[in-house]
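Sequence in, structure out.
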Amino acid sequence: MSAQWSDCFSQVGAAERGTGSKTFKAEVLIWQGYFEGALLCIISTVRLTGSNLAHFLVNSSARIGAHDWNLRGGHYVDLRVLSRDPLSAAALRRLAELARTEDPRPVAVRQGKQLLADAVRVPEPA
């Protein structure tokens, strides 16, 4: 396994979500690359950890890893993995640990349309 996220993945796109009057605009980053021999497309977003708000919270001027946030409840990175063949839970955990090499926040990794509640989570180190 490579030592850094950027060794495996390149950013291939970005989009903004949350255009309503009660939501923040947030950037969704799209990554593509090979991980353990499989071609993956990964969609990353930042979400609130402990709040009743389900809104995205990072706008284009505050990209992932660019700032230290001080939000009530904190936030985490949500990685949605699109691949030809499903990855095992162990592979998803290794992918989350790889993402942590460039962003220290907690990470949740899930397959395609899998619910966030079923995601594999890697918390911040104590």
